[in-house]
Write a structure and sequence with these properties.
The radius of gyration is 21 Å and the shape is globular. It contains 11 helices and 20 strands. It is 35% helix and 31% strand. The chain has a 20-stranded antiparallel sheet that branches. It has helices at residues 12-22, 63-74, 87-90, 133-167, 180-196, 217-228, 274-286, 288-306, 345-350, 363-373, 426-443, and strands at residues 3-7, 28-33, 46-58, 78-82, 106-118, 121-126, 175-176, 201-210, 232-238, 241-247, 250-255, 258-261, 264-269, 315-324, 328-338, 360-361, 384-388, 394-397, 402-406, 411-420. The N and C termini lie far apart (47 Å). By secondary structure, it is α+β, with helices and mostly antiparallel strands. It has a single domain, classed as Anthranilate synthase (4-Layer Sandwich), CATH 3.60.120.10.
Amino acid sequence: MRTTQIHQPENLENFKQNLLLWSQQFDDIVWLDSNHHKDQYSNYDAILAVDALIVIRTDYFDAFERLKEFQTATNDWIFGFLTYDLKNNTEQLKSENLDELDFPELYFFQPKKLFLIKDNHVEIQYLKMVDDEIDNDLKSIEKCYNERRSLSVDTQRSRSEVEASQRSSDYIKIKLRIHKDDYFEKIAKMLAHIYRGDIYEANFCQEFYAENSEINPLETFKKLNNISKPPFASFLKFEDKYLMSASPERYIQKNGNTVISQPIKGTAKRSEHKTEDLKLAEDLANDPKERSENIMIVDLVRNDLAHTAKKGSVEVKELCKVYSFLQVHQMISTIQSEVKAETNPIDVIKTTFPMGSMTGAPKISAMKIIEELEETKRGLYSGSVGYFTPNGDFDFNVIIRSILYNETKKYVSYSVGSAITAKSDPLKEYEECLVKAKAMREALGN
C-alpha cells in the first residue's frame, strides 16, 4: 500500500531540476518528461521513479512470461525497459552483432519512491515509508537548489577549460561503426532485397561510438533535452549504465481498454527562416516517398494491434500528420484499438514488439535482413522505456535520438537510422541519418 501526499512547489521548473539532481543518489532511476508538449493522450507532464524494492532482469528467453509474472505479483507501479533483442523471444531470430554496452534485455523495478507531476502539483507515492520520510525528502530536494547554484558557478568558472577540452583531440572521439562507402554498399544490398520482393521496407541503423570516454550523464541529458525538447524525453540509470533520450516517439499506450500506437516515419530538417521552414514541413507532408513509408508501417501496426483487439476496433485516428520539433519535422500517425477487459497488458506489448517504425515490412523478414546487414547489436536502442500502472495501464516510448553509456567500460554510443524503400536515394538516406545525429553530437560537444 502506498502513502500518497500532494505537493505544490512554488516554482515547478526549479522543483523538476532539483528532483532530478536529488535522484542521482539511487542505483535505479527512470525519469520521463513531456517537456510541456500538449499531448491529448498523456496522463502526466513528468514522472520520476527511484529506489527499487524488487527487480526483474533477464535475457530474451521467456522474457515476456517472466514480466507477466512480475507485473501480476507486484500489482503496483513498475518501471523499466525492453530492448530490441526481445524479438528473439517472439520469433525464431537471433542477435549476434557486436555489443559493447551490456544492458540486460529486459529490466523492470518496483519503485519505493514515485513522483507524478501534472499541471502545477506533484503527487508523491511512497512504499514502506518511515516517519516523515516524504517531508524529509522534500527538504533534501529543496537543498538541491543551492547545489545547482554552486554547480552553475563551478560550470561558469571552468567553461573555458571545458570548451578547450572539447576542441582538443583528447576529447570524446566519435567514430563511425559503418563508414560512408560501406553504408552505400549495405543500402545497395537492402535495395536488392526489396527489388526481389523479400521486403517492402526496412529500418537500417548505424552506430556512432566513443571508447575510453567519460561523460556526466545528467549534464549530458540536460544538454540533449534542451537542444530537442521532445515529448518523450527519458533519463534512465541502471547501476553503471545510462540512457539519455530525446525521443519524439510514443511506441504504445494503454488507457483502460483503449490502446494507441504512434509510429514516426518521415523526417525533414528545420530552418531558422520561417517561410523556408513552413515549406520544408509542407514538402514533407506531400512527399510520396515519405508518405508511402509511413503508410506501410501504419498497415503493419494495424496488423500487430489486431492480435489483441476486439473485432473491428482497429482504426487510424490520424494519418501522416506533420509535427514540428526543435531539430526536425516528423510525420506521425496514430492507430487505435480496443481490447477486452480481461486482456493481459503484457500480451498487448508482446504481440506488437518490436515497434513497426524500427523494423519494417514484412516485419520478420525485415528483422532478419537488419541483423544480417547492421554491425551492432541494437540492444536498448530502438527498444523502449516506460511503465505499468497498478491497474494494468502502460505508456512506452521508442528509444531513438538517444545516448547510451556504460560508465564502467567508458563506452558512449548513439545510433540513427532511416527507412529504406524502393524509392530510397542512398545519399539522401545518409544525410537524413546525419540530421538525426546532430542533437546527440552537439550534446557530446562535437
